[in-house]
Structure formats: C-alpha cells, structure tokens
C-alpha cells in the first residue's frame, strides 16, 4: 500500500508537471502565434514598401526619359543657334563688304557730283553778276546752265 501511495503521489506530481508543461507549451504557442502574426504584418509592410519603391523607381525612370528628351531638344536648339550665329557672322561680313563698296561708290559719286556743283555754282555766280554784253533778253530760261544740267 505504501508503494501504491508513493506511486500515486509520483503520478500526481508527474500529472501536475505535465499540466504545467502543457500550460507553458500553450503560452509558448500563443507567443509564437503572436510572433508569426507580427512577422506576417512585417512581411506585408515590406511588400508594400517594395511596391512603393517600385513605383518610385518607375517615376524616376519616366522622369529620366523626359529629361533625356529635354536635353536632346536643348542640344538641337544649341546646334540651330550655332548655325544661325555662323550665318549671322557671314551676313555681317557681307554687310561690311557692301558698306565698304557703298562708301567707295559714294566717294566716286561725290567726286563726280563735285564737277556739277562747281559748274552749277559758277553758273549761279554768272546769273547774279547779270547778263553779259552778248546776251539778250531773248535768251531762254536755263540756257546759261551747262548742257549736262540743262532743263528740257
């Protein structure tokens, strides 16, 4: 009977230990479940963050393409401006040559006109001095002008 009692006490103690182990296991399972849930939430947040990063990378890629297109347009505009500048420089050279030519022609024309002005001035002086003894009142108007300046 003593052995049975000892065995019963050991069984009761073992049952209590088993019950404690089962309770502890349940708590550990609940803690593990909470950790799994937290890990799941963290994974979900990571997935969302990766999706956001993917979206941002897409936007960066689109912006880079847009900037690349803009840079191409700027390069084309600079090339066109360079061409126009070169054309303008050539036109300025042509205009300078034309101005020099016009100046030379103006000098030549002024020299040619000086003859007429001198002859015209002499004719004015003669008119102001009065008619010469050989001239009569029948002389037509403008007859005193040189033939190159005569009025028709």
UniProtKB/TrEMBL annotation:
<comment type="similarity">
    <text>Belongs to the methyl-accepting chemotaxis (MCP) protein family.</text>
</comment>
<feature type="region of interest" description="Disordered">
    <location>
        <begin position="128"/>
        <end position="152"/>
    </location>
</feature>
<dbReference type="GO" id="GO:0004888">
    <property type="term" value="F:transmembrane signaling receptor activity"/>
</dbReference>
<keyword id="KW-0488">Methylation</keyword>
<feature type="coiled-coil region">
    <location>
        <begin position="74"/>
        <end position="112"/>
    </location>
</feature>
<dbReference type="InterPro" id="IPR051310">
    <property type="entry name" value="MCP_chemotaxis"/>
</dbReference>
<dbReference type="Pfam" id="PF00015">
    <property type="entry name" value="MCPsignal"/>
</dbReference>
<protein>
    <submittedName>
        <fullName>Methyl-accepting chemotaxis protein (MCP) signalling domain-containing protein</fullName>
    </submittedName>
</protein>
<dbReference type="GO" id="GO:0005886">
    <property type="term" value="C:plasma membrane"/>
</dbReference>
<dbReference type="InterPro" id="IPR004089">
    <property type="entry name" value="MCPsignal_dom"/>
</dbReference>
<feature type="domain" description="Methyl-accepting transducer">
    <location>
        <begin position="1"/>
        <end position="103"/>
    </location>
</feature>
<dbReference type="GO" id="GO:0006935">
    <property type="term" value="P:chemotaxis"/>
</dbReference>
<dbReference type="GO" id="GO:0007165">
    <property type="term" value="P:signal transduction"/>
</dbReference>
<keyword id="KW-0175">Coiled coil</keyword>
<keyword id="KW-0807">Transducer</keyword>
């Amino acid at each position: 009977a003593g052995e049975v009692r000892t065995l019963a006490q050991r069984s009761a103690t073992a049952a209590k230990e088993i019950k404690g182990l089962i309770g502890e296991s349940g708590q550990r399972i609940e803690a593990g479940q909470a950790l799994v849930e937290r890990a799941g939430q963290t994974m979900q947040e990571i997935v969302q963050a990766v999706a956001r990063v993917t979206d941002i990378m897409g936007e960066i890629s689109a912006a880079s393409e847009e900037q690349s297109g803009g840079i191409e347009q700027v390069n084309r505009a600079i090339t066109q401006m360079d061409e126009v500048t070169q054309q303008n420089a050539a036109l300025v050279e042509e205009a300078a040559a034309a101005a020099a030519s016009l100046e030379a022609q103006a000098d030549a024309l002024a020299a040619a006109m000086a003859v007429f002005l001198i002859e015209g001035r002499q004719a004015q002086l003669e008119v102001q001095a009065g008619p010469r003894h050989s001239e009569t009142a029948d002389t037509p108007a403008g007859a005193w002008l040189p033939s190159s300046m005569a009025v028709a």
